[in-house]
Amino acid sequence: MVISILPPIVHPPTALISQSLSSCLPNLLTPRSKSTPRTSKARVFTQSQTLAILSDPHVLQLAETLEDSLQPSSSPPLPPLQKLRDISSQSLLSTSWPSRKDEPFRFTDTSFIKNSHIEPISPSESQSLASLPVSSDTLLPLHVTILDGYVVDSLSQLSELPDGVFVGGLSSLNSEVTMKRVSEYAPNFQGDLFWLLNGVGAPDIIVVYVPEGCRVESPLHLKYFSLKGSEKDSKILPISNPRVLVLVEKGGEIGIVEEHTGVDETDKCYWANSVMEIVIGNGAKVSHSYIQTQSLDAAHVKWTSVRQESTSIYELTEVSTGGKLSRHNLHVQQLGPDTVTELSTFHLSIGDQIQDLHSKLVMDHPRGVSRQLHKCIVAHSLGQAVFDGNVQVNRDAQQTDAGQLTRSLLLEPRATVNIKPNLQIIADDVKCSHGAAISDLEDDQLFYFQARGIDIETARKALIISFASEVIERFPNTCVQNKVEGLVRKLLDPTPSSR
Amino acid sequence: MALFTPNLSFKTATFNSSLFILPATRHQRLRLNRCSRSLKLRASVAVESPSTSATEHVGSPELLLEVKDLSAVISESKQPILKGVNLTVREGEVHAVMGKNGSGKSTFVKVLVGHPDYEITGGSVTYKGQDLLEMEPEERAVAGLFMSFQSPVEIPGVSNIDFLNMAYNSRRRKLGQPELGPIEFYGYIAPKLELVNMKVDLLNRNVNEGFSGGEKKRNEILQLAVLGADLAMLDEIDSGLDVDALCDVAKAVNGLRTSKNSVLMITHYLRLLEFITPTYIHIMENGRIVKTGDISIAKVLEKEGYKAISDA
């Protein structure tokens, strides 16, 4: 087993933001050559430096490929999309491909993507395949099917949406009021290279808009399918760039179930590079379920960026099992007091794969509450898991109650997990806790099963499932819960259970 | 040789030592010799009965468990805990083991069920004629050896009913019987809940998670009721229980007893022994059983403490 826990960074209440902050950010604007070791430098909040000092030819080429692939339509892109593309391509000029020397990618090797030939997928290719049996799975009544990043209306069911709620591509948004709101919000967040590539390559912005005070009873199922894939070892990665903006106005409420998957059992190679931005108004609530079961030869890079206004609630429950390389970047920012954030995530690595969660939670206002639970199981000697969990409790975030707990289970020799919990606390009247544990199964628990006549193999399986259940049972929807539990059981125990 | 055994009513009867039978094994004699100075109990009746007899009162109390000179150490530190324990349990008997904290009582029963924290360094244990020490813990359980844990571990993520169902089916499988699905199993288990006076909702909670002390003990007895046992070893089943709960638990244990199965309980208090009357009381000290007798030992203990026993 390979274990690394980096000591959590806990700043004493009076400390100022120290240099370690810079370690959370890719070094975007350093006017040096790539090979120069990064200097430790305080985070630059102002973007006053001139751009385009350093361009990574590989990134530029990829950005061009993506831009060229976008269908020249009769009308120019709508302003929010145009703005997104402009900002993204501009930033890409000064962004290089991340290496293991960059802190956010220290444990996550992205060379698998870099060394592949990236091919954008055009919409006609996926639309023609729309007859595939992806419609049979109607887990939830409200659903949108997104094939290779493109919404397929014929495979979507949205008739039960309440008045004023909009779900669909920006291009089909008719309401001026809604369009105005969308324009105000998108995009004001900057992520890493992958976020930017999505911004350049996204064919449309898929908008989920919930007006003030509106409560959407049934959860909305966003079904992302990756249809186009290449054969293993072909070194070709078809890329899809789905981008979703969820905008929930004051007092609104919606449940979103994001499911990212390949279409068939065969392991195809592709790259799903997905971004979701969520804006939650005052007192509004978003319950977000996220399930990732991509092909084990695929790359899956995901950004979830959440902005929460005061007294709003954001709950995320995630289960990720697929992908050769799976990376979830989760950024949550509390923009007002009395805001609640709950993050429960479970990653499973059953093969030669990396499951990576980089989360960052910024609390800037009084009486914020956050609960984060991250669990992962690595059940293969070549499997890896990475967790970097950053929580910032800033000066004004007094009476914050922030808790973070991570537990990892390594089931095979040489299975690897790299854990970096880090809390940065500047406010002085706060309650913060964190914990990280890496283990095999508990001997006491195993013996309890044995003492009741249950053989050790059955006991192990039950305990492994129970480890995952703690997260799975937090999915608010029972259908989702059952589906995911069945899936995880199958992955952990491919032979039919004999119990 | 068949021995006559009286049908003692353990629930209410006061102990009648004159009706007692002593197993006639060599080591038992040795043990008794060693302790005989202070023993009030004497072998009084050992009647041979015709082997054809099949009446209820006349049976043969088969040897169930025979522990000879058992010694064990803590696996990690190699610290010796058991230093030559001898004990014989026959069918239908109730044994109580008492002794100071740290005398090795709990270790003794944990060793019998195969707890991995301990390593056997000597002696033998025969259970139903088999070498118990050769069996895996789960085999021992399926063979009818049950231990109720002093502090049962919590198992988050596994519901109580699933756990019981799994354990029950393991046993059914071993016996070549068809396994029970969740619904059939619920039908089987529902009446058992009443037996231990336990609420139904505890079935859907995770095993022991957030249970009160009393609920945990009841849950142990529920497992005993569901799985059944030929030898139930109850490790401080009375600790942390209020009088009502103790009464419920004791009633449940008595309700499960037959002339065939036996109980070995560890306790510090006379009170439990008033509910479940023991055939024998053993006093353990420094890893050995130093004294065996009837309930009068417990009464002396209650009054005067372990010093009175050691000095006697």
TrEMBL record, chain A:
Q: Which domain of life is it from?
A: Eukaryota
* SUF system FeS cluster assembly SufBD core domain ranges (all copies): 239-467
Every copy of the SUF system FeS cluster assembly SufBD N-terminal domain together lies at: 79-221
PANTHER family for this protein: PROTEIN ABCI7, CHLOROPLASTIC (PTHR43575:SF1)
Per its record, how is this protein called by name?
Answer: Protein ABCI7
Provide the species name: Abeliophyllum distichum
Automatic annotation (TrEMBL), chain B:
Q: Boundaries of each ABC transporter domain copy?
A: 65-311
Annotated CDD domains:
ABC_FeS_Assembly
Keyword NAD appears in the UniProt entry: no
Among InterPro entries, the record links this protein to:
AAA+_ATPase, ABC_transporter-like_ATP-bd, ABC_transporter-like_CS, FeS-cluster_ATPase_SufC, P-loop_NTPase
Q: Which domain of life is it from?
A: Eukaryota
Q: Which PROSITE patterns match?
A: ABC_TRANSPORTER_1, ABC_TRANSPORTER_2
User: Which Gene3D superfamilies does its entry note?
Assistant: P-loop containing nucleotide triphosphate hydrolases
What keywords sit in the KW lines? ATP-binding, Nucleotide-binding
Q: Name one Pfam family in it.
A: ABC_tran
GO terms, molecular function: ATP binding
Q: Do you know which PANTHER family this protein is assigned to?
A: ABC TRANSPORTER I FAMILY MEMBER 6, CHLOROPLASTIC (PTHR43204:SF1)
Entry protein name:
ABC transporter I family member 6
Q: Which organism is it from?
A: Abeliophyllum distichum
